[in-house]
Structures are given as C-alpha cells and as structure tokens.
Amino acid sequence: MSVKELAEAIDRLVEAGGALVTETVDITVVSQLSAANADALTALCAELDWTIELYDRAGELLERNQATHEEFSPYRFHLKKPPAAPGVLRLLTRAGLRRALQEGQPAPVWAILGFTARISCGLRVLQGWDESTPPAEIPATKSPRKLVREYGQVRQVPSDVRLWLSAELDEATYIQPAAQAWVSAATSALTACLPNEIDADDGRLKFRGPPRFELTAYDCADQPLDRGTFNVVLRAIEWVFESDREAELRHTLLAGELARSGPLQEGTTQFLQAHLGHALESAHIAYQMALSETARDTLKILGELRKTVTDETAKLAEMSRQLTGAVSAAVATGIGLIAARVAANAPAVLIVSVVAVVLIYIAMIISSGIRFMQLQRTLRAEWQHRLYRFLPRSEYATLVTAPTGRAEASFRMTAWLGGSAVAVLSVACLWVAVSTPNAAAVTEGPATTPPQSVSSQARKVPLPSPAGPTSRPTAATAMPACPSGQAACNQASTAGPVPASSEVPPSAPVTK
Predict the structure, then answer these.
(1) How is 332-386 classified by DSSP, letter by letter?
(2) Which label site among 40, 320, 345, 474 has the fewest CB atoms less than 10 Å from its CB?
(3) Quick one: 419 exposed, middle or buried, by C-beta within 10 A (0-12, 13-18, 19+)?
C-alpha cells in the first residue's frame, strides 16, 4: 500500500461525507469516522512505516490490535507525517489542501502529494511532495482592503494579493486536481478585489459605475473558471496592483468598465468569461488617456518647477555677485584708511567709525543671503508633498535639491571668503589706528634759540687785557668782528674801549 492510495482513500471518504480532514505540519487528522471506515484506514496504514493513532468518541486511545465498535464511534484517526524541512507544509490529501487554503496557512512552501507541477506566488509556492524550494518573493503592493470597502465581520478581501497572484497557468498544470482546488480558492479571493465595495448582508460585489452594478460573490463550490478566463483574472489583478502609486486609479477604471459591461441576470462565472477581457482592454485605453492628461499637467508643473529653481539659483548668484562687489569696495576702503593714517595722520576715531560701518554693511548682506536660503528651503519642504508628490525622491533631488544646493554652496563659499577678508582688513585698520602716534607728537622737538640783538652780541665780545695807561690797542684788538654791519663797527671804534666792569645797556635798534 502506497501513500498515494491512502490519500485517495481519505479523499473518497471526504467526498462521500464520511470523514473530515485537517492537516497540520506534523499530522493529518481524519475525524467523524465510523467503525468500518476506521478499520479500513488502519488496514491501509499497516504497510506504512508511519505512526498512527486511533481515538474513540471519549478520546480514549485504542491499541493497535484492539477492535472497534460502532457504539464508540465516531472515531478520530491521527496519521503522523515524516518530518519536513523548516517552513514546509506537507499536505497529504486534496481535502486537506482545500482546508489549508480556507484557513490561510502561513507556511511559504506547500508540498502536495501527487502534484507534479509548480505554482509560484509572491509569498507562497505549491509544488511536489518531496520538494522544498522557497518562493521568489515579489515587491509588496497596495493592500486590496484599502481599495474595496467591506462592512461584514468576516473579511472576504485578502490582505495581500501576492498570496494568490502567480504566473499564467499552462494546460498541464491546470488539469491537475490540486491545481483545480487552488484555482477555485484563488478565483474567490481575486474576484473580491474587483468591486468598489462588498455588501455586508449577502456578500454581493457592488460596482459604483455608472451605472451601479451588483454581482454575486464567487463560491468555491461553483463551477471553476476555464483556464483562459482564470488567466485573464490573473492579468487584471496584476495590472491593477503592479504599481502601488497607481493602484487606486487603475482599480477605479476597471471597476467602472465592469459596471458598464453586461446585463444583471448573468452569473458570476458567465459574467467573467464574457466581459472581463473586454473590460480590461477598455480600462487600458482609459488609463492611457488619463496618462496623457496627467502628462500634460505634469509637464506644466515641471515647467513651473524649473522656472522656480532657475529664479532661485539666479537670485543666489546675484547675491553672490553683490557680496563680491561689496567685499571689493570694503577692501579698497580699508587700504585707503591705512594709507590715510600712515601718510596724512588721519584721526583714529574716523578710521574706527568707517571700519564699523563697513563691517555692518557686509554683515547685513551675508545675513540677508542666509535668511533667503533658509526661507526657500522651508518653502520647498512644505510644497513638495502638496505639488510634487508624484516625483520620486531621486528625481526630485536631481531636479531641485542638487541645483539649489550648488547655488547655496557657492554663496556660502563667497560669504566665508569675503567675510574673512573684511575681518582681517578691519583688524589691520584698527591696529594701525591704535599704534600710529598723532601729528603733534611727531612734530614735537628741542626749542630753537631766538635771534640776538647787536648789543647783546657786543656784550659777549671778549675785551683785551689792558697793556698800560699809555698803551693803545692793536688793530686786531680795537676792531672786533661786527656781524651787524660796518656802521655799527665804526660807532664802536670811536666810542673807545668799554670798561670790563661796566654794564652796557641794551642799544636801540639801528636805523639806516
């Protein structure tokens, strides 16, 4: 007896209503068994090297060779599975697969007995019994529960479409029983993502339109969709949710096209087979038209953004040029003040006053530029989420942040260099004003001797010593040098010698 025959026997019991199946990672539980069915399953497992346990209605464990009795039914049969790799859920029966799909088992790998194909979704993969390859995860998408309104207590809309979104199925995969069970569950989950809202009473799918349209919810017990229609459902859901930013627009367009599609008397399966493909094509066209309109608005907004960035960078460049000119004038003024102090002894108070005015002027220009940059940066941060939210961060950085950042860096460099130059020159001017002496101190020196009169000079002429009472002075002695002129000398010679002890009064000025 093989494991496959045991699984088929359990599935036949479930289809006949003679058993219920629940499968976990470790065991398969078959409950509601009659005594005969319990004995049949025990006999099928006799040749398997698996651990089996049989419990009666009271929960008492029966021994392996103990007979069953109908009065102790229903029996519960536990079949322990071989150990699997971490994250792998082994499913022995199709009934267990359907139950796991309804409960939403979190295991990423489902190994199904008798399944020879592979169905890979974004968060889950269905494959053969002995395989354990993990799924290739796809990026997260917008949750359908944010687009479809539900008012009932039981949620029908899946939280993540990646649990059901796979590649299109080929014929060899679609015809397998395990794939059919998965297709029914996937159709029920994916069709719940199509309407605008779900009725809280009967779960009907409501489309706002116009016109308003209602569709019966798909039931897993209904006839499954054919392979072509199911692949169209996969394409429609993939198109709607492939872009997180555009999912709401695409969902609205597809729901509106479905509302305008068909009559109300059709069933869900017939409606999807007849109208879903055409509605998807119409939604594609409407989306392209919306993109064209959006493109025009986007180009207009981008043009305004380009003008704003250009004006801001031009303003910063103009402020840089203005600061450069002011710094040049300040440097020239400082050099002139130093020259005036050194050469013309300009007052120190005047030099200090002029330097203070120059410093205040340069500081005002730098301060106004910094405030302008801060204001523009604040405005960009406030308006980015309101007007330019459609731009990704990388594109916004390329179009706006990078150009304005370069302009701000240029102004900051100019401010640093210019401010440093003016500060150094101001310190030099102050040093020259303090260390250079005043004009009065420079011209101050020893007093000059005033000019002397002739009489005073005459008083300082040395007299010859007397040679005797009868002696006469020699020519050299009688005629001293007279710097005041020949007339004065003549008068001095006629007057005779002046006694040494007599004081000569100062003479009046000599007039010619």
Answers:
(1) HHHHHHHHHHHHH---HHHHHHHHHHHHHHHHHHHHHHHHHHHHHHHHHHHHHHH
(2) 474
(3) middle
- Which pairs from 116-120 meet CB under 8 Å and 24+ separation? 116/176, 117/172, 117/173, 117/176, 117/179, 118/173, 119/166, 119/169, 119/173, 119/179, 119/182, 120/166, 120/167
SS3 78: strand
* Residue tagged 């910094």 (tokens): 370
Cα angle 306, 307, 312 (rounded to 5 degrees) comes to 100
The rounded Cα 122 to chain-centroid distance in angstroms is: 28
pLDDT tens, 311-339? 888 988 898 998 899 899 888 988 888 88
How far, in Å, CA of 82 to CA of 80, rounded? 7
Note the pLDDT tens digit of each residue in 140-167.
Answer: 889 999 999 988 778 889 999 999 999 9
Asked if 161 and 237 touch (Cβ cutoff 8 Å), the reply is yes
Q: How far apart are CA 461 and CA 482, in angstroms?
A: 10
Omega prior to 450 cis, within 30 of 0: no
How many CB atoms sit inside 10 A of residue 8's CB? 15
Q: What is the mean pLDDT of residues 110-132?
A: 91
Task: State what percent of residues in the chain have pLDDT above 70.
Answer: 83
The SS3 assignment for 199 reads: coil
Beta strands 125-127 and 88-91: pairing type?
Answer: unpaired
**Could you tell me the CA-to-CA distances from 507 to 453, 456, 457, 486, 512 in Å, in that order?**
8, 8, 11, 16, 15
Strands of 197-198's sheet in order across: 149-150, 197-198, 205-207, 213-215
Provide CB contacts within 8 A for 72, sequence distance 6+. Answer: 35, 56, 57, 58
Dihedral sign, Cα of residue 99, residue 100, residue 103, residue 104 = negative
Tokens at 50, concatenated: 């698996």
6: exposed, middle or buried (Cβ count in 10 Å: 0-12, 13-18, 19+): buried
- Rounded CA-CA distance 234/190 in Å is 8
Q: Are 355 and 432 in contact (CB under 8 A)?
A: no
The structure's pTM equals: 0.61
Amino acid at 491: Q
Task: Report helix angle 268-344 to 247-259, nearest 10.
Answer: 150
What letter does residue 491 receive in the DSSP assignment?
Answer: H
Total number of residues shown for the chain: 512
Whether residue 124 contacts residue 163, with contact meaning beta carbons closer than 8 Å, is answered with yes
How far apart CA 467 and CA 307 sit, in angstroms, is 119
Q: How many CB atoms lie within 10 A of CB 239?
A: 18
The pLDDT value given to residue 279? 93
